[in-house]
Structures are given as C-alpha cells and as structure tokens.
Amino acid sequence: MPAPRTLAAGTAVVVAVPATSANLGPGFDSMGLALELRDEVSLTVVDGPDVAEVTGEGADVLPRDGSHLILRLAHEHLRARGVRAPGLHLRAVNRIPHARGLGSSAAAVVAAYAAAEALLPAADRRPPEALLEAATDFEGHPDNVAPALVGGATVSWTRDDDARPATAPLRLHERIVPVVAIPDTELSTHAARGVLPESVPHAVAAAQAGRAALLVHALAERPELLMAGTRDWLHQDPRAAAMTASAALVAGLRERGHAAVVSGAGPTVLALCDGAEAAEQAAAAARALTADDAHAWRVLVPAVAADGVRVEPLHHG
Ligand SMILES: Nc1ncnc2c1ncn2[C@@H]1O[C@H](COP(=O)(O)OP(=O)(O)OP(=O)(O)O)[C@@H](O)[C@H]1O
Ligand SMILES: N[C@@H](CCO)C(=O)O
User: Fold this and answer.
1) Which annotated residues bind ATP (predicted)?
2) Could you tell me if 182 and 298 are in contact, meaning their C-beta atoms sit under 8 angstroms apart?
3) 5-170+305-315 has which CATH code?
4) pTM score > 0.95 for this model?
C-alpha cells in the first residue's frame, strides 16, 4: 500500500455548524431542524502535536490534546481519505450547549468531518451531504446530522437496499418560528435512550405514524395544525421522569396553545410557533413558567438555519 500523502503545515479551514433539534414530536430519529446557533471551528495543519483551544460551552471540561473529539474524528477522516496531518491545531468557539437536546455531538462530528474534508486539495473534496453516512455511523441516527449538514428541516431514513442513511428536505412554511427554552441541567442522549421501551402497542404506533404524516403537512402548508402534528407517544412520556421540569414546561406551553415538544433527547424544550407574534408569546410564557424553577432557563428565538455547515478553506500550504 502506498504511504499516505502528508498535508502541508499551514493548510487551514474554518467551519460554522448549526445546532439542531431532532424528533419535532412524532418524528423520532427521523426529523430534524437546523437552528441559527453555530459552533465555529478552525483547524490548521501543524508540524507539532495536536492542540485544542476551546472557548464557550464545554470549555471547562473538554480535553486540550489529541483526545478532543473533533481532533480524533478529523484525523480518522483524513486517514480514511488517504492523507495524514502531522498534527492539527483546533480552535473551537462553542455556542451550542452540551447534552441538552440541541445536537451538540452531531455538530462536533459534522464540524470534524467537514473541516477535515476541506483540508484536502480542492479537486478531491466532496460536498457536505457526502458526509451523511460517516456522521450517522458515529451518531447512531441521522436526525441531527442531516440538518447540520444541509440546513432547514429534514426527514431521514435507512435505505432498504443497502441500509445506508438517506435524507430529504422538508418544506417549511415561512410563518414558522422556533423558540427554545434551555435549562442548565444536562441529560446525555445515551441515558435518555436507555429509558425507552423495547416495543409499543400497535395502536400507539398507528397514532404516531398518523401524527408524523400530519406534521409534514403542518410544517409545509398549515402551521395552525402544528399542535396536532407535534403530538408524540413514543419517547416523551417514557422520558418524562428523567426530565420532570421539561415535561411540565411542554405541558404548560401546550395548555396555552403553543406547539411545544422536547427537543431531541432533552431536556431543552422547543416550540414551533405560527408567526413572530406567537413566538414572542411562547417565549414570554416559557419565561413565566420557568421563573420559579430551580434550574436557570435560557429562552431563545433562533432563526431556522437555512444552510447547514458552512465551510471556508483558508489556505493550502
Ligand atoms: N463541541 C464539542 N466538542 C467536543 N465534544 C463535544 C462537543 N459537543 C458535544 N460534545 C460531546 O458530546 C456530548 C453530548 O452529546 P449528547 O449526544 O449526549 O447530547 P447532545 O448532542 O447535546 O443532545 P441531542 O443528541 O439530544 O441533541 C458532550 O458531553 C461531549 O462529550
Ligand atoms: N432521536 C434522538 C435525538 C437525540 O440524539 C433521541 O431522541 O434519542
């Protein structure tokens, strides 16, 4: 086997990857939405050892050496593409909170693979959507990585012929405005998946499939149907005991007419609102409902991220 080509020191790239909210209620492990809250990552090839500089979310706990997830995955990706970097210098500005249901791990995986890909010579680079399979393999499900790669709202599935992931864009009505309420407590996706039942009754599966189909219609054509279209039975109830404050906030917002769901594996709460005024009302209701909660909640009204990961190759040495 020929020795892998070595990238020149100084070769550099900057990527900006959006937060994502998965499930959207009934679209468990399949639907997702990209949000304008981005981590920024720059990666530079160096002759010395791997180094990670991290500011923002996770800065107090993430490693500063080659064991950082982004550095590990970037090296892995380069090896898979037949090149090597002697060392990599990572600068990460993290804005997506970790283990809250806003796709931080998917964002890190997508950032690592997209940045590594952009370090390759222009003729060899593949577009972000070509990274879906590798990113899904790492995450275990495609619902966050797909919108992080391509932006907007997506529905993803596993192909029948070769079991590879695939994704398609979902049309989003221009009136839809997302609101997120983020508590200061973490819940790992791994832990949240551990409480799900092995199987569900046929009637539950049938009801869930109907609401997922309705959600697609509500997102595209009839935002006024979002309340009905965001109803879920598969994951939110089984997980409620692991995030009681989030379950109470979802219920409180829905009682007030806002289409609230648990974002991803939680504990963030997402409301899909019909217009800017409804979004302001949902944000105000979320602030009021969490004002006396022991957890500090942040309520944001991020725009939908129309594009996924942004990649800017800086310099090829
Ligand atoms: N920017 C990052 N750099 C390095 N590691 C990260 C980064 N973001 C997330 N991680 C790792 O991923 C973990 C969080 O992943 P997890 O899947 O539990 O939650 P999430 O992706 O934030 O939420 P969800 O999958 O429900 O949307 C963090 O604790 C950290 O180990
Ligand atoms: N669909 C996933 C999203 C979190 O990664 C879950 O709810 O477990």
Assistant:
1) 97-107
2) yes
3) 3.30.230.10
4) yes
